[in-house]
Design brief:
The complex is a heterodimer. Chain A is mainly alpha-helical. Chain A is 40% helix and 4% strand. Chain A folds into three domains: 43-159, no CATH class; 174-280, Cytochrome Bc1 Complex, Chain D, domain 2 (Orthogonal Bundle), CATH 1.10.760; 297-406, Cytochrome c-like domain (Cytochrome Bc1 Complex, Chain D, domain 2, Orthogonal Bundle). Chain A has 17 helices and six strands. Chain B is mostly helical. The chains are: A mainly alpha, B mainly alpha. The A-B interface holds A 48, 50, 52, 58-60, 260, 297-298, 300-301, 304-305, 308-309, 311-312, 315-316, 347-351, 354, 359, 361, 363, 365-366, 368-370, 374-375, 378, 406-412, 414-415 and B 1-4, 6, 8-10, 13, 28-31, 33-42, 216-219, 221-222, 236, 238-241, 243-246.
């Protein structure tokens, strides 16, 4: 009798535990955790729907292989993931496969999400399931031949992808491991900040060394002091991720969306953990080159252009105005080996992010109408080699390439 | 849908939200902004007259060179491009007063506060005025054109026009008097001498160099705390200055 009671109680407890472990849309805590992870993963950044609110997809992601249309991940049965189980979702996140067994493209960063724990993907699943279904049919086969053959991803995965959940390093602090999990897993920072090889895979030794995307260059975020965030304090990294602004720089381009949709809504503890991880992990960079001499004719032309066109905001001494106009002296973005970032901003202008904690989103005007390719090259060379900065001189070919790449995106002509 | 289109959609949504009456909204998130957005002035291209006829341009060249003669202060009005400036302005929206209300009635004896009371737009004023000047010179100076006169005669004639002592044939109130025509040409010559070189005049920023005007420079934090000391920086125009191209000033 007694044994029977104990057995029954054990069974009951086991059942309860099993239920709790499954995704449960009535579980407020799990939903909130799922919501937070969805934010940390910036799912909205790509999956935002035509309504500007749901994750009904439809955006075209530019990749070197063609455009990929982002799928609908609302729980709509026909056009979304309404029929997916938690296991299906885990498979997609963990090994990049859809329920029918076909392969997803790594523009969807399952190469990072594979590090997420089952509990976390279940929480994200539960959160996505709790959203309003939105019917939005997305053409999921937009890549040109031969990249439209999804089976090819089988071979790609063999070469470029190792599935496996994140393993904390017991030698490191809890904050470091939390940061590593966020950066390498849900945050998928490497999707942009790690350079791609010719197949679009990432090179492990170059992790977070900076990569080109969509006419920008996601800068080096290793602990390298010259090119990375090695010289940034923890508070600086936290401020940057929370508001998009520090005295040193302002988030622009794709990163401004990351701040707006994702990092500005993350907890202080998590932002500090990310800062800890980035500052303590290895530095990958290149030693600072010899700066171009200030007597170089291109530097002198650049100095004249800078004084007349840039100095009013960024100041003659390159110090900028804290929180408003980025400091250019000791600014890593402008000294990246690939000058795409500075060229993009000079040619096209930029509006940095508005975050809840810093509501003003200062903008820089486009200077493409006012400066020739040679002049843009000279002023960029000057900025990259003044006030202690040092980086290779910019060529007119680089400017011309960027001018073509950024032309006509939204040129308003009507004076 | 590409990212930029999405952004524009968001902006458009915000605009629609703002235009709905009687509902207060606060601006949150992104302000409307478009990449590459700029409204540069049209840059005057060299070569050829756009409105003036060659003989009109020759006369006007001579007029602006007497209004602003070449001397040790500056090059002449012609040499800094005042005629080109006036020609391009006449060919543009100003030449036809595109944005003015130009319907009658026009006052016969307008008060100064009534502004423009001539039905003639600048294109007509110049065409008519220059023809009258040519006719006057032909009749008064034995078939010569204005530009063929000696500089003394040119100066005398111009100051007579300014003071109302010379009446060019066919120019009458209220449409266009000789003094009105002279005042118009003088105004436009001064504008051409001092306007940004992008508009065709003020070549090499000569007008600005003459008076020490700094041009489109807009940051004086480095020099403002030097009261009484001369300002020595070179002027800069909308399209820059020679140093931008690695040339000495």
């Amino acid at each position: 009798m007694m044994r029977g009671t104990i057995l029954a109680a054990t069974l009951l407890a086991a059942t309860t535990l099993a239920t709790a472990a499954r995704a449960d849309s009535d579980n407020f805590t799990e939903l909130q955790r799922g919501r937070y992870l969805t934010t940390a993963g910036d799912c909205m950044g790509c999956h935002i729907g035509p309504d500007g609110q749901s994750m009904a997809g439809g955006n075209l992601l530019e990749t070197p292989f063609g455009n990929i249309a982002v799928p609908n991940i609302t729980p709509d049965n026909k056009t979304g993931i309404g029929t997916w189980s938690a296991q299906d979702f885990y498979e997609a996140m963990h090994v990049g496969k859809r329920p029918d067994g076909t392969h997803l493209y790594p523009a969807f960063p399952y190469t990072s999400f594979t590090k997420m724990s089952r509990a976390d993907t279940d929480a994200v699943y539960a959160y996505l399931r709790a959203q309003e279904p939105v019917a939005n049919e997305v053409d999921r086969n937009t890549l040109p031949f031969p990249f439209n053959i999804r089976l090819a991803m089988w071979a790609w995965n063999r070469l470029n992808f190792t599935p496996g959940e994140f393993k904390p390093d017991p030698q490191r602090s809890e904050a470091y491991n939390r940061g590593a999990y966020l950066v390498e897993g849900p945050g998928h920072c490497g999707l942009c900040h790690t350079p791609r090889n010719f197949m679009g895979g990432d090179a492990a030794s170059d992790e977070l060394k900076g990569g080109a995307l969509q006419g920008w260059f996601a800068p080096n975020i290793t602990a390298d002091k010259h090119l990375g965030i090695g010289a940034w304090s923890e508070a600086e990294i936290v401020d940057y991720l929370r508001t998009g602004h520090t005295a040193r720089t302002a988030a622009s381009g794709p990163m401004s969306e990351v701040v707006a949709y994702s990092t500005s809504q993350m907890t202080d503890a998590d932002l500090k953990a990310i800062a800890t991880y980035l500052r303590e992990r290895s530095a990958v960079g290149a030693p600072a080159p010899q700066p171009v001499a200030s007597t170089d004719p291109h530097m002198q032309a650049g100095a004249a252009i800078y004084e007349d066109s840039c100095a009013a905001c960024h100041a003659r001494d390159g110090q900028g105005v804290a929180g408003m106009f980025p400091r250019l002296a000791d600014n890593q973005l402008v000294q990246q080996t690939d000058p795409s970032g500075i060229l993009h901003v000079v040619l096209q202008g930029s509006r940095s992010v508005a975050a809840p904690q810093a509501v003003t989103a200062p903008a820089m005007p486009s200077l493409r109408w006012r400066l020739s390719d040679q002049q843009v090259a000279d002023v960029a060379t000057f900025i990259r080699n003044s006030w202690g900065n040092a980086a290779a001189a910019v060529t007119t070919d680089q400017v011309k390439t960027m001018r073509d790449a950024t032309a006509g995106i939204a040129m308003s002509q009507g004076n | 849908m590409p990212l930029t289109t999405r952004r524009r959609l968001l902006c458009a949504t915000a605009l629609v939200a703002f235009s709905s009456p009687a509902v207060a909204h606060s601006v949150t998130g992104r302000l409307p902004w478009s990449p590459n957005e700029a409204y540069p002035p049209d840059i005057v291209q060299p070569g050829g007259w756009l409105f003036l006829r060659p003989e009109e341009a020759a006369t006007l060249d001579a007029v602006v060179s007497r209004l602003i003669p070449a001397d040790d202060l500056s090059p002449s009005g012609k040499d800094v491009g005042c005629t080109i400036f006036i020609d391009r302005q006449l060919a543009g929206p100003w030449g036809t007063y595109d944005w003015y209300y130009m319907q009658p009635p026009f006052a016969d004896k307008p008060l100064p506060t009534q502004g423009i009371q001539s039905p003639l737009v600048p294109q007509q004023q110049y065409r008519k005025g220059l023809a009258a000047l040519t006719a006057y010179c032909r009749d008064t100076f034995g078939g010569k054109t204005f530009e063929q006169l000696s500089t003394e005669d040119q100066d005398k004639l111009l100051s007579g026009m300014e003071k109302g002592e010379v009446h060019l044939p066919g120019l009458t109130a209220p449409q266009l008097t000789t003094t009105m025509f002279f005042a118009q040409v003088l105004d436009n010559t001064i504008e051409g001498f001092f306007a940004d070189p992008i508009y065709g005049g003020n070549k090499d920023m000569a007008g600005w160099k003459m008076i020490g005007f700094p041009g489109t420079r807009y940051d004086y934090r480095d020099v403002i705390a030097n009261p009484g000391k001369p300002y020595t920086k070179p002027p800069v125009a909308i399209m820059g200055r020679p140093e931008w191209n690695g040339k000495p000033a």
